[in-house]
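User: Continuing from earlier, I have the next pair ready.

Assistant: Great, send them over.

User: Here they are, in order.

Assistant: Folding the first of the pair now:
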Amino acid sequence: MAKYSVHQQPVETLLAWIKSGEIAIPEIQRPFVWNSSKVRDLMDSLYKGYPVGYIITWKNQDIRLKDGTLSNGKKILIDGQQRITALTAAVVGQLVLNKDYKEVQIKIAYNPTAKGDESFFEVCNTAIERDPLWVNDISPILSGQMSISQARKAYMALNQDADEDFIENKLEELKAIKNCQIGIIELDASLDIDTVTEIFIRINQKGVVLSNADFVMSKIASDEQFGGNRLRKMIDYFCHLMNDGSFDKTIKQNDKDFVESDDYKTISWIASVKDDLYQPNYLDVLRVAYTYQFNRGKFSDLVALLSGRDFENRTNVQTIAEESYQKLGIGLVEFFNKTNYQRFINLIQSAGFINRKLISSKGSLNFAYALYLSLRSKGMDETKIQNLVKRWFVLSILTGRYSGSSESAIERDSKQILDKGIEAYLNQIEQAELDAGFWTYRIVNDLDSSSPVNNAYLCYLASQCKSNESAFLSESMSVRNLLEQSSNGNVHHIFPKNYLIKKDFKKSDYNQVANYAFTEQQINIKLGDLAPKDYMAKVVDEIKAKEIAINENKPYESEYSSIKSQDVLIDNKALNCIPESLDTSDYTHYNDFLSQRRKLMAEKIKAFYLGL
């Protein structure tokens, strides 16, 4: 039996369905990823009668109501959101959000006199606005705000030599875009989410792969009975405000009912916060709320639960749907809670991960936040929570626990923590995975890398930030200070890059993370391209001169280092895991240096973890 139907509807009808809610699309759109030229091309294809692809909808599952009857679910938009957004922008004149979450207008201009290879449509710009041959914006004509007669008269006033009948015919052709047919594939409600995903991928081989989180977002946007559409709005508004605090003005102008609600109070605080660590998107918000409240990892299960799925009897029941929406709502409110959020951010920063430059895994952050919310809900002592969450977070970073496709790992960990308790399960993982071999061999091997987003290297930097350690050859500036100032402008190649290039070393060799150290920029520049033994000799000589000058109460200069004593230099090299052999090293010792330093860095990472 066919699990889908295919039919066509005119653009005008499709937009009417969107407006009436018969097809449920997100009330607040995520950023519009098409550029303006693609909107132009869509209008040109419709105008010329070319196919523009299918819109895919999935009928929301019917739910068995308390009176025994079945609900009549709306259609969920599975694919085609960008095309529909483009149509509403060009036809209705609706504002869209760009990638920076700014509201912009996309005006498509029309030239009725275009000939040959000339385009009838262009994205409106200043030059087009000055050219009388162009109708600057087609939306008033297509939306009915301006009649064909009015449009013709306006055009003729600027182009008195034009053929009036010809122009009127062309404007009628333009307006006929509203009658162009668009194909709709309607998937049956009986299809499960994995089948729907497979259909989507097969139809859109070159498109963006639809994630199950997108299904959840479309699912909750389509629900009014249990307040799913309200939850969707909270998620979207929170993520928009996170990226652009000024979006708060747009909310206040356009959604006064929401501003007067408790939902607005729950999320509005984020507009005035600069979060340089987490910056969750809609997927992260859903992931944390879902993991925290349901102790599950697979979003496909969440879609089923929100549909009221009784997994035992294989039916959809209203009470299960209602309870699932309530639980998801609780999870979201706890996620958005200002105290929870800021305490969690402070907890992660106190572990040395001071900003997003040191975070390679959003998955690890998401699970850590879900764990934090869960432990707080159980009334556990805050000091104990901090210790457990820090250890879990760093362990998951070091082991790459949630890298790649992580739903299975999240599901497993959630169940194990629920069954065994966090302390017992964490101790079990530490004994099994963080054994002597891990610290002696695996971390050392992981540091054999030229990637600055290497997990072990980022944990090494976090350890320096946590202890507020001084930068290499600096007494006054910490690694933390330099990381806050720049992402990589203060990274010094201990064996200078150009020095190694001249000795025929490859990029993958001289850019080893074990050859990196954060250094004050002026020191980095002054050290130049000298061999380590040569620049360290200058550093040592300068420090000796400083010690004499300080003893004699005389002024001194700092060119190669801000360190003022040899004892501090020894400590500084130890803090930065610099082998003593550096003072006598040239390019022939480079590989030995890397080997020695990786071991020192691994020891530091181990001490860092054990000290959390």
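And the other member of the pair:
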Amino acid sequence: MKQKLGSQSLLHAFEQGRQLLVYQCHLVKRDMMLVDKVSIYLFENSQTGHVEAQMFLEDIAQEYLDSITNDILYQKDYMLLSVISLDRKIANLRCCRMKGLSLEERKNYPYEEITELFVSRHIHPNDQERFLSCTDLDFLRKTMEKQGQFSFTVRSIKNMTERYTCYWLDRSENMLLLVADDMTQELETDVLTGIPNRAGFFRHAEKILHQKTGDSYAILFFNIQRFKAINDLFGYDTGDRILKKIVELIQKSFLNPLITARMEADRFAALVNVKYLNLEQLTELLHYSYRDGNTQIELHERCGIYYIPEQCDLSVSDMCDCAKLAKNYISNQYVRPYAVYNEKMKLEYEGNSRVMINLEQAIEKQEFCVYYQPVYDAKTEEIVAAEALVRWIPDNQKPVLPGRFIPVLEDSGHITKLDAFVNQTVQEAIARRYREGRKVVPVAVNLSRMDLMDDHFMKRIWDNLAEKKIPINMFHYELTESAYADISDNGVRFLTNLQKEGAKILIDDFGSGISSFSTVRDYEFDIIKLDMGFVQRIGTSKKTDHILMSLIELAHRLDMKVIAEGVETKEQAAFLKEHGCDFFQGFYYAKPMPLKEFETLLDQ
């Protein structure tokens, strides 16, 4: 295009420079997402001698994109940088350093085609759906309009963690800038200790195990005993220094760990070559005297060990769970502070988990039944009381033995729910017979240590007793010695008030624990129940017989009655009668039975 100009100022400028750039701008071609540079120059027509203007149109797409992305590229070494047109659905790659993706830079690709290529060749199968949803153009448009910036993380097929971030490049033209950077090391490193965290351990360990070197490996799972108390007593700074010291001890030890990681809090894991795993030395490693100025702290660790079999289908995460599970089976941490995983542990753990998961459902389905075992007067051999025992009978399955589920519920704290069910069932049964004018005997209900720490549970017992309007002496409550180990002040008051109102308090399994005498010294009981271990050994030695005779005499001197549990033979009953035992309970007289059978026995 040529144009005559009459402006004297333009002519003057031309005379000075003999050429003048009058106008220059950039235009975006919407259909191809390219850029043109428009320039207008003044020049002298050699034929006419007139000063004229001419416009030049240059394709500077690459130059333009380079200029606006250089600042970003210089800030960080990105793995990917792409310009995206939301309207035209085109992606222009400016940088791509991702393995397995041989893509040309500075080239426009249809957006859907390039994302599908990324998903199939680069993104981990478990994260492919997330990647597609986060890179959907409609989703990006709405999200960017609200937030102005958007980031998400996914894993690659190499299990590397990548962060993808979108910025507005030109909001008026709906153009985005998408960058990706490798966040693996940052996200897989524990900030405090500088070693890998859980995710880092899983990835590095899998890489080592997949190399198939022919060596044998094991995973060790450590934790520091009572570490919370250390933080509370000495402060978190001291706690942090201890954690760093433990890492140093493990890494520099005879174990020569291939990788050590902090899994969480005071828990660590290590992948080691079995040839370096010496269990005697491990015992020494797990005890350390930490000194900090004038402070000395004795640190005791526990360790679970999982030997990785040659053919193993477990993930590293599952292997760590096995090692962690083994740690829970350490019986004496001071003598042997480690344990080796075996399949029996897994079966027991799974069974315990099913017990806890199915508890409430079993109560609702009435799978738990209360059985009653009569207690007989030693002189008259008449039924004078009973003990309530719970049985679990799932639908169309064999009964679950109490020894299988009671300890699990006690350890987990779920026992209170079951005890509440048993207590209410017993009270309702006694209340019904009492209203009907039929024979009623006291029934003992077992209480656990968790019950005596639960104010709501204790209040519920009082409320139920008040509602039923039955003489409170119809109720006995049995506790083991362990229940008194952590008993609260409220628990002591609860039992004392029950006694004042007329209920009887029994101590169960007396003689089986090392603290039996201090327990009867410090707390008030109405009845002691001799541990069946003593009863079953009657006649086997004079020592056993004399101990049993002495226990009965001691109880009477302390104004307590005695129930002998586990009486199974005529000879045992005769011995106990001779030496003043007050009551018998055992298979020789009657086994635990359902309520209907027990009522029939009472009605006779």
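Worth noting for the second one:
The longest strand covers residues 295-307. The chain has four domains: 2-59, 63-186, 190-341, 358-603.
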